[in-house]
Design brief:
Order of helices and strands: EEEHEEEEHEEEHEEEEEEH
Structural class: alpha+beta
Number of helices: 4
Shape: elongated
Radius of gyration: 24 Å
Distance between the termini: 55 Å
Strand order of the largest sheet: 9-13-12-11-10
Number of strands: 16
Helix content: 25-40%
Length: 296
């Protein structure tokens, strides 16, 4: 992924035309990008010679929305084109949701984060939705065992008083078979939790290969999937936990959904408060200067 902002224009190229060893990076200066393209072209790595050869050139005055999509590390750009609007999603090719991160996907994510930082530093009439770019990577932390539920007694495990047990999702044989048939490249079977234990601070999961790990519960960011279908919960920028739908409900999914709803309500309230403060600021300034607003 190549990105460059300069001369009132946003230049983008996802790398499909760059060759077998595509150049990747965010270049804040034209000269740096020009040198990188020229050097790679002389080495025979890419077919482009100069910044003007990049596939997409968007005037900043026409830019409307830059949004990080829920699926890491994709992002979407919306701009005015003629009498209408044009949208395009940029995402690296290949399988991105395994236990290891492909190098080209990690570089793509770095470019997107740099692009959002650059656009936020400019005085533009553009709606920026940073999404996953504003969240750090939160990897799974290996653990030796899962905490027992309320109905299980285990003298070898003592749960801290500040980390009470919340809910559990026990393993089911038929559920595991269903997950295997429902797996896909975007929802690999290796990342489908067979058993989940939820405490006040962490999410514990046991995966099909037998490994057990946990992730901080506060890092929960989004949910992919409808109410009556398989759901994938995203922690931090890219860590995923896939939970299949179960008839009769699931206590863990219910707890996750309530947590996301509370976070969404809090964000809406904060946004509404900021709008009220901005609207009230000119009136307060006028009253301090002895100016009162009168109706027409």
């Amino acid at each position: 992924m190549l990105a460059y902002v300069g001369s009132g224009t946003l230049h983008l190229d996802e790398g499909r035309r760059l060759g077998r060893a595509p150049l990747s990076g965010f270049y804040p200066r034209w000269l740096e990008l020009h040198r990188a393209l020229a050097g790679a072209h002389r080495a025979g790595e890419i077919a482009l010679r100069r910044p003007a050869d990049l596939r997409l050139r968007i005037p900043l005055r026409d830019l409307r929305v830059v949004e990080a999509r829920p699926q890491w590390p994709a992002f979407e750009v919306c701009w005015r084109a003629g009498a209408g609007l044009r949208r395009e999603v940029f995402a690296p090719p290949g399988r991105l949701f395994g236990t290891t991160v492909p190098a080209h996907a990690a570089r793509h994510a770095e470019v997107v984060r740099a692009l959002f930082r650059d656009l936020a530093s400019r005085s533009l009439r553009v709606r920026l939705a940073p999404g996953w770019t504003s969240h750090p990577d939160v990897p799974w932390q290996p653990v030796a065992s899962l905490p027992p539920s309320r109905g299980i007694t285990a003298s070898s495990y003592r749960r801290p008083a500040d980390d009470p047990f919340v809910a559990a999702r026990p393993a089911r044989l038929l559920g595991s078979l269903r997950d295997w048939f429902a797996s896909s490249p975007t929802r690999p079977y290796a990342l489908m939790a067979q058993e989940v234990a939820l405490t006040a601070s962490h999410v514990y999961a046991r995966f099909p290969d037998g490994r057990m790990a946990r992730v901080p519960r506060r890092a929960l960011r989004a949910r992919l999937g409808g109410v009556h279908e398989d759901a994938t919960y995203v922690f931090g920028a890219r860590t995923r936990l896939a939970l299949g739908w179960r008839r009769g409900g699931c206590a863990v999914r219910g707890a996750f959904d309530r947590q996301l709803e509370r976070a969404s309500s809090g964000a809406r309230h904060a946004s509404w408060t900021r709008r009220r403060v901005r609207r009230a600021a000119p009136r307060r300034a006028g009253l301090q200067n002895g100016v009162t607003a009168s109706p027409l």
